[in-house]
Predict the structure.
Amino acid sequence: MNTHLGRAVVAVATSAMAVSLTACGSSDDGDTRPGEKSDAIKVGLLLPENQTARYEKFDKPLIEKEVAKFTRGKGQVIYANAKQDAAAQSSQVDTMITNKVNVLIIDAVDSKAIAGAVKKARAAGIPVVAYDRLAEGPINAYTSFDNEDVGRIQAKALLEALGDRAGSGQIVMMNGSVTDPNAKQFKSGAHSVLDGKVAIGKEYDTIEWKPENANANMAAALTALGKGRVIGVYSANDGMAGGIVTALKAAGFADLPPVTGQDAELAGVQRIVAGDQYMSVYKRYAPEAAAAAEMAVALAKGDRIDEIINQKVDSPTTKGVPAVLVPGVALTRDNVKSTVIDDGVYTVSEICTDRYRNACEQLGLLKP
């Protein structure tokens, strides 16, 4: 899948890990030699939900591919999706412990609620890599994007789109779910740029990141503020941006105000091409998945990763967690080709369906 996406690996700690962990003693001939640690490990992969397209389309297959790479095809990934149910995810950890996985990669539905399950894993001798969200409990490693920087990227793009109009109206902020620690960081990063530069008329923490909730919040904001006063919308991700754009169109905007997003979902990219959404944050999932897989395999073998990874983060419950943080990229109409198309995330035909053909021709993605 997406062979070009692997070329997008950025210069993060994974490059150092690749050298150091390979040197820990695995041969290239596919056989385990005396004194070596077996590659036949079981990796439990727990992802939080399937409403956001990225998890099933990108994260899962990329992690499976990287685990196979770092175990020379001998590793096994056991997968479960919690479908936004924190209690179900805790039960899934119990099942993974019963199945005697060697290591867990967990993208928590609720960073606090998962702490007890992480403790159970630790008691069973199973290390945990917190993936994409900083789970609480005794985690062993963490990989994600630089989440505050994601918020800054979104906010800077919104201010750029507003230009001189920033002082003439109000924006609406549509943040993510309070159960997601990333949402708090996106919000903090965005506020660090927006505060004092533009008036924030209404701000919402959107339950479970659901587009329909964002749609309802946006409709309420327009009623409260008045349609003519809303000049832009900070949306923390693309799914919510879709609900927001629907609300704006229903309100009768002739020209839509700029709306931000995140994740470069196909529908979001298409809205950007059409001019309905101003931008998204494109996050190259390949390096994040590679870091998670490599750390997981190393931990399963008992290798020390804290001596390899220089960056550390603190969670509310664990200090000095070895971490790999990947930067994001602002995706607008100007760089659709040089990002998601050239990286092989989407093809031109996937983006430029009949509905978007004219817009794609204007951008030079298709010939008239």
User: Anything to note?
Assistant: The two ends are 30 Å apart (CA to CA).
